[in-house]
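Subject: complex prediction, re-run

Hi both,

The earlier run crashed halfway through, so I resubmitted it with identical inputs.
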Amino acid sequence: MTLERTEELALNLGPQHPSMHGVFRMIAHFDGEIITKIEPKIGYLHRGLEKLAESRTYAQFIPYTDRLDYLASPHNNMGYVQAVEKLAGIQVPERAEYLRVIFAELARIASHLVFIGSLALDMAGWTAWGYCFRDRERILDLFEMTAGSRLTVNAMRIGGFSQDVPDEFWPALKSFLDDLPEMLEEYQGIFYGNEIAMGRMKSVGILPKELAENFSTTGPVLRASGVKHDLRKDAPYGIYDRFDFEVPVLNGCDSYDRGLIRLLEIKESAKIIRQAMRDIPEGPIMAKVPKVLKPPVGEVYHAVENPKGELGFYLVSDGSTKPARCRIRSATFINLQLLPAISIGWKIQDVIAIFATLDAVLGEVDK
Amino acid sequence: MFGKGLFKGMHISLKRMLGPNVTEYYPEQKPTLSPRVRSSMGLDPDKCISCGICANTCPNKVIALTSEKDENNKKVLKTYHMDVGRCLFCGLCTEACPTNALTVTQQYENAVYDAEGLKWDMIKRHRQQTGKEG
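This time it finished cleanly. Structure:
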């Protein structure tokens, strides 16, 4: 009897991913059920944001940064305005710094909730998705009552914060934080403790520590492979050095740990917000910034730890009102490169979960 | 024991299923939005001094306005158009307005059938909304 070889099968997935990641397409090659090669196709959401920055003034570009990683827009605002402040040498009032931290950490929780929800959804877990989105809504309400928008928050300004929080913000924030442990227990019970979810994620999509480091991976994906790297601790920006929090690190290197680490990070973010709530001083929220801002000639790189990893802005000033060059180092663009490397040898359903655990948001990938 | 997690999950779902509803029956029920919500723009032409700061602040060149001088050599607003198809709803224009003539409003039902409907004549809209016309 002769052994018959079958042909390799190429299957197109996307360009519409049926979830929250954005428009991503990949061509998967199979040998039977096993993936032999993955070709990611990106660029469907490309808007040329770096080029747009060159034709906008420094302040006018802030709303565009919302559209990078739209699940955590305060982080994008923060990275950009801090880069401009560094370039122009602007000192930010204390209250604005605290508000920035509160917004950034709330956005981290909101982004991780979308992550947990969409990871569950990618594995057909509709119920967990519903719960995560129900709870995320409360964070979006907090953004809405302060800055006037839910997703593209546009809350930060060069030299401070757009508007002070209304009176009803603090009780709503406190009640959210009080309810958070119960919510996390619910996600643990409905999703992370579920045997089907465990079976599909444990020991699947192994990302060894060396590979993660070689690919310049950052954020929770790297920390789930046993590397303790978090810019909030390693290169503190703003006032992050004042807060007491842990950086969760897991050593599983698999899809499950990449999923679980987000749950642990939510707890730490809540810790930071509580400390910020306790210490926030009264006072102004905007520094004195010239109406026509012309930073001195020079260049600056500033990076923040957004929910997906290191988000960096490299700005070059030629002394005019507009940046001469703006380069955005987006975390997920770099993390997404891992997909072809760690998917080989797994089945199609595993790859969907692996892709979800990389937490790519195509707004940031395509820019 | 295998299956314990599944039962726990089912228990949580069942508990939530019997709990109160969290969704809103839109459009029968409408949400009450905070006065800061940037769903739409409104202009009070009487307050506007035609300084054009809003148009200069806009990152996307949405606003176009014209003015003429009256007998006291004072600028008077003649036309004010917004091409909201290009609008980011960032609110920078309303922040820049020195007289608070341009403000954010909470009318979120802005969908139209054709692109022409996205070119707003702000003076006309103000008149319609205040009942002075139409």
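The two ends of chain A are 55 Å apart (CA to CA).

- K.
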